[in-house]
Amino acid sequence: xxxxxxxxxxxxxxxxxxxxxxxxxxxxxxxxxxxxxxxxxxxxxxxxxxxxxxxxxxxxxxxxxxxxxxxxxxxxxxxxxxxxxxxxxxxxxxxxxxxxxxxxxxxxxxxxxxxxxxxxxxxxxxxxxxxxxxxxxxxxxxxxxxxxxxxxxxxxxxxxxxxxxxxxxxxxxxxxxxxxxxxxxxxxxxxxxxxxxxxxxxxxxxxxxxxxxxxxxxxxxxxxxxxxxxxxxxxxxxxxxxxxxxxxxxxxxxxxxxxxxxxxxxxxxxxxxxxxxxxxxxxxxxxxxxxxxxxxxxxxxxxxxxxxxxxxxxxxxxxxxxxxxxxxxxxxxxxxxxxxxxxxxxxxxxxxxxxxxxxxxxxxxxxxxxxxxxxxxxxxxxxxxxxxxxxxxxxxxxxxxxxxxxxxxxxxxxxxxxxxxxxxxxxxxxxxxxxxxxxxxxxxxxxxxxxxxxxxxxxxxxxxxxxxxxxxxxxxxxxxxxxxxxxxxxxxxxxxxxxxxxxxxxxxxxxxxxxxxxxxxxxxxxxxxxxxxxxxxxxxxxxxxxxxxxxxxxxxxxxxxxxxxxxxxxxxxxxxxxxxxxxxxxxxxxxxxxxxxxxxxxxxxxxxxx
Length: 610
Ligand SMILES: Cc1cc2nc3c(=O)[nH]c(=O)nc-3n(C[C@H](O)[C@H](O)[C@H](O)COP(=O)(O)OP(=O)(O)OC[C@H]3O[C@@H](n4cnc5c(N)ncnc54)[C@H](O)[C@@H]3O)c2cc1C
Ligand code: SF4
Ligand code: SF4
What we know:
Blueprint: H1 11-29, H2 36-50, H3 56-74, H4 79-95, H5 99-114, H6 116-125, H7 137-141, H8 148-156, H9 160-170, H10 174-180, H11 184-187, H12 200-210, E1 226-230, H13 234-245, E2 249-254, H14 262-265, H15 274-285, E3 290-293, H16 303-309, E4 312-315, E5 321-322, E6 335-337, H17 338-344, E7 357-361, H18 365-376, E8 381-385, H19 397-405, E9 409-411, E10 414-422, E11 425-439, E12 445-449, E13 455-458, E14 461-464, E15 468-469, H20 473-477, E16 482-483, E17 486-487, E18 494-495, E19 498-503, H21 506-509, H22 514-531, E20 561-562, E21 576-577, H23 581-589, H24 600-603
Parallel strand pairs: 1-2, 1-4, 2-3, 4-19, 6-14, 7-8, 7-14, 8-9
Antiparallel strand pairs: 5-15, 10-11, 11-12, 11-13, 16-17, 18-19, 20-21
One iron/sulfur cluster (SF4) is lined by residues 136-138, 148-149, 152, 189-191, 198, 200, 591-594.
């Protein structure tokens, strides 16, 4: 009798799975500044180890390719080797039987073409030219360069006010970022190689929630230089705060009645309470920032006039104009823009969604925010319509989960094709089912219409959350260069034909994140200061607790949880609960102190000024 065994994981297979999981977490948190030559070599070796050995290009070719790359790494390579590497990789790509071979070749090809200068540097100098080694990985991933291990240590020591002051040295929006920062720093946290990345944002929130009355840092002597800041969002206010500390006189112009930009007029109060944001803005203004509310540059005053009146100008107007679908009936009663709803939520111009069925079109963070807001506006049901798959949505996973948990319904893979009206008012959104197609530029599959009948989702209102664009027209008319809807700038933020004008934030990058806008504001304060002929330093001298060796005990990450109110309608209270003191202490103590250990030990690990 022949016996067929029931499949059971062998010890070897389990061990391999563990190794792959460790490899995955390692590559997941690897610094993007790693040497591409070294990476290509390691990747080749990994692929050879995975090769089933059936086809020669993979088994033999990849080993040879790895050897050639190693020659370059070891300093024996010559310039001609680079062409040879590319040729061999192309030939493996064309002839390997399966993805183990041809994908490895494709990665090497991307490395040798995309990082040709790094390969050349190895050949010509016999060492690595990759700059920007991430001495402290989390710090190099934070666009404002916040001293993360420093404030972890201060929080663990119970010195919360010092922790917040340290954050503010680089990022004045310590409180707001503790609540809403998208925390790119955590993606690079080395602790992720062991168990989970540190909850860096959570610790910032905890320190901000528990700090005493804050004192402004010392200001430099007054310079008499006046700087106009157009736009009082996070980017403009960051620049204004630092310029004031540097002794200059910044004047912020904003078209609206309150400051904060999208932090106030986009992000809903249940994620960032208005009074919390206002208190932080008031603190920043107290550094010596003048504000002119309700002035729209381009309409009330021209940028040329401002340039003549001020010693320098920072343009940070964000991206406030909504995109349209391009369908008929888009201006009919019952079709709204997400940005307008979120902007006017505190005012009288907000639609009444009580008891209504609402369809939201879009898959980004704005779509999630407006969906959850619609529930708080009393909507009976909220349907989110997205033309790709849920996993292709650009919204943060936590935001998608929160919207679904609160009761929003997601319709994946359906594209809007018609807005239906009844007596001139919206009564439905017709959608065409889609399937995923080929990968498009940007790494997401393009949706392709399925051969199925469109269907209509009955509703009383449609909200479009399909992206924002920069309102640049009057600036383009004044001679500013615009490309793909964003201002074109030099690396310094300066622009062609407008000496003394600097541009940054969402209007230069396209709609992005608060911390990117804050990082741009910080950089522009530095560059404007230089332009004005100064080299002021922003510094903070604090005694940071000594880094002590940690044990190697594994410990999971403490997350913040959302508290759901019984009824959402009318409830705009903060939903995220901060860490408890015990959780914060445990979490801050998990930090591996890369400012002291690893490369941090050699490179000083910390800069007390910038
Ligand atoms: C709904 C929504 C949710 C978001 N959620 C998050 C999040 O959770 N985390 C995160 O990190 N980021 C989030 N973002 C993105 C973040 O808010 C922005 O990236 C950031 O605010 C951009 O900052 P900024 O200063 O460049 O521009 P903005 O914040 O847009 O500020 C620009 C300012 O310029 C003013 N202005 C514009 N034109 C003129 C003019 N002609 N004259 C005078 N003033 C003018 C505006 O009134 C505004 O105050 C969200 C954005 C939105 C829309
Ligand atoms: S501001 Fe954001 S990116 Fe920077 S350290 Fe804080 S959470 Fe991380
Ligand atoms: S362990 Fe600490 S210092 Fe190291 S990357 Fe993570 S947060 Fe930064």
